[in-house]
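Continuing from the previous page...

OK, I double-checked the sequence for NTF2-related export protein against my notes and this is the correct one:
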Amino acid sequence: MSLQSSTLKINHACESGKKFAELFYEQLDKSRHLIGQLYHDTATLIWNGNHIVGKTNIVQFYTNLPAIDTSLHAIDAQPVSPIISKDHTSILVTCNGRMSINRKQQHFNESFMLIAENNVWKIVTDTFRNY
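Thanks. Re-ran it with the corrected sequence; updated structure tokens here:
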């Protein structure tokens, strides 16, 4: 792969990851009923060590959470090597910031592995930890 091609892939991943993260947290905060659209049918969510499998179960989990207000401090995204992602175009998105849950402020880190499915980014794994 040429340097120019590699740079284009990195830039595309950064732009896509930023847009995706902003959409995800907007839906988490304000339109949680739509969040299932962002997950692959067989996605996995690990939320503070709790393992949830499948889009339907993930949506139910989020629906049962209290109101959340997030503030993103940093977003990083990078393309995933074809050695790992095989035939899928994939990016890894890492976010950190602060969130208010039940008026309690906490820091958080979250990582998304996204795959392109019919030209739409879908979460296949989502790992969240607050502290």
